[in-house]
Design a protein that fits this description.
2 domains; disordered C terminus; four-stranded parallel sheet; elongated; Lyase, Ornithine Decarboxylase, Chain A, domain 1; alpha/beta; TIM Barrel; 314 residues
């Protein structure tokens, strides 16, 4: 994160106070990089504007930054998680909100969108860019001035199936932005999984075996209540790599808890495993330990950092 920050990138994250979480009112606190803490709301309703204005007046905030972007909903195309199902204004609602914001004395600097988490095809960004171009054109004709476009995240990593890499997505995005937005705009992107996903590999151990309906079951020391929480919350399909070789057979790999939903895999072919065997699980750097729990008394896995720039104790 230090290296990313040094390039001029910034970070946003939530605080426990609802008004700051939703409306990104500056907290006056700085994180380790000196960046003010807070998270932005991508879209608000017209009713919420009066609440925001009251809050601004009460706390004497002259230039609020939380309403810098108006988030727009994007039709789902080839993504795993459809973020527009929860966030973003429909295109028909954009200008009523903009006029309401303007009447309230708020300054909308640009538009934000998100094609969805774990987007599988670079071309999915093009319809989104065209939709936002229509909004920019109408905004210009109605005397709104936008200087920023936030293209969100969505860049994927490959789990069990190969997906296009970051460079392929960037090629499509660069061409689309150059064609549709030739004006001098500030372009913001919010990649997450594509930065951290492949930075971590999980190591699990087989702690039990059984034969159920003639299918081998292997119980490991982590599951969907731990680092495999991404299977539940983010629909991740993690690849399991055994250290042992041998003939491959269908099997079930389950977590250690008493919950019957604690199943890690039902369709991967593995050799006959023994208690104590290790499995490697790549692609565990995003949406894993952050949502892990200690359900049933099993703590989340320990995180070890290995790098030429870190000593072993770190």
């Amino acid at each position: 994160m230090t290296k990313i920050h040094a390039t001029g990138s910034a970070f946003s994250y939530g605080r426990s106070y609802l008004i700051r979480l939703v409306f990104n009112i500056p907290t006056g606190e700085a994180d380790d990089n000196g960046t003010d803490a807070g998270a932005q709301a991508e879209c608000i309703s017209e009713k919420q504007l009066s609440t925001i204005v009251d809050f601004i007046n009460e706390y004497g905030i002259d230039e609020p930054k939380f309403l810098e972007f108006l988030g727009v909903a994007i039709k789902k195309r080839n993504c795993v998680i459809d973020l527009s199902s929860k966030f973003g204004a429909q295109e028909k609602d954009v200008f009523p909100l903009l006029y309401a914001a303007c009447s309230a004395g708020l300054n909308v600097r640009g538009v934000a969108f998100h094609v969805g988490s774990q987007c599988k095809t670079p071309d999915s960004y093009l319809p989104a860019l065209r939709a936002v171009r229509r909004i920019f054109d109408r905004a210009s004709s109605e005397s709104f001035t936008f200087d920023t476009l936030d293209i969100g995240g969505g860049l994927p990593i490959s789990y069990r199936s190969p997906l296009p890499g970051v460079s392929e997505f960037c090629d499509v995005l660069s061409q689309g932005l150059e064609k549709l937005f030739p004006e001098n705009l500030r372009i913001i992107a919010e990649p997450g999984r594509s930065i951290s996903g492949d930075a971590m590999t999980l190591v699990v151990r087989v702690i039990g075996r059984s034969l159920r309906k003639n299918i081998p079951w292997y119980y490991i020391d982590d599951g969907v209540y731990g680092a495999f929480s991404g299977r539940l919350f983010d629909k991740c399909d993690y690849r399991l790599i055994p250290e042992r070789s041998g003939p491959l057979t269908p099997c079930v790999v389950a977590g250690p808890s008493c919950d019957a939903t604690d199943i890690v895999s039902t369709d991967q072919m593995l050799p006959r495993l023994e208690i104590g065997d290790l499995l490697l699980v790549p692609g565990m750097g995003a949406y894993t330990s952050v949502s892990a729990t200690s359900f049933n008394g099993f703590p989340p896995p320990q995180i070890l950092v290995t790098s030429d720039q870190w000593d072993s104790e770190q």
